[in-house]
Write the structure tokens for this entry.
Amino acid sequence: MADEGVTLTWLGHAATLIATPSGKKILIDPWVQGNPACPDDQKNIENLDLMLITHGHFDHMGDAVSIAQQTGCDVICIFEIADYLGKQGVENVTGINIGGTVVWSESIAITMTEAVHSSGITGEDGGIIYGGSAAGFVIRFENHFTLYHAGDTEVFESMRLIGDLYSPDVALLPIGGHFTMGPIKAARALRLIGCGSVIPIHWGTFAALTGTPDELKRAARDIPGLKVVALEPGETVRQRQMV
């Protein structure tokens, strides 16, 4: 694994499974069992070291409790979701907030970034529980490869600052529209971030998510050297294929 760098598997929607150069497994936005885009043979997450949760909506943290309890993984999320998960019996949870950085497993720096979205958690009675602010994550791996998972968001001017501060090698951006920005705004986000490679996420899961990678390619065709890595759910790419 060490000679391959980071590997990434898109499980559909926003769920993303990452293997670090040292072999650690990280899952971002744990929604797999009810995720219609996730292949059946990848719905069971049995081995996991870390879970990152961008916000409280069911299609991003729907399997957080079950996976965390089954695997015993660490969890990093915003303070309010950490409090909620702790009350559900989840252990090893670290609550942080926008702008905070945790150095995990000694050498992997995880920074929580702003996102423009809501973050209500659906309670057992169907009511909405306050889930803090929606967020994204910048992950700087032990080989210095840097990934930005934007979570669910609209384009916002401070994406320029995220690019200036962290210089991500790859950005995972939502493009489906309706609940997030669509392809045209995602192209604008790429101009702000200054990132040379993008993996489109949060598209095609539901009929309302009409944005496509081809539309993103057309909208971003003026960005010199941009690489659009359009994955199918369940597909894996290695670091050298992402940049």
Notes: The helical segments are 58-61, 64-71, 79-87, 159-166, 183-193, 213-219, 239-242. The chain has a mean pLDDT of 97.
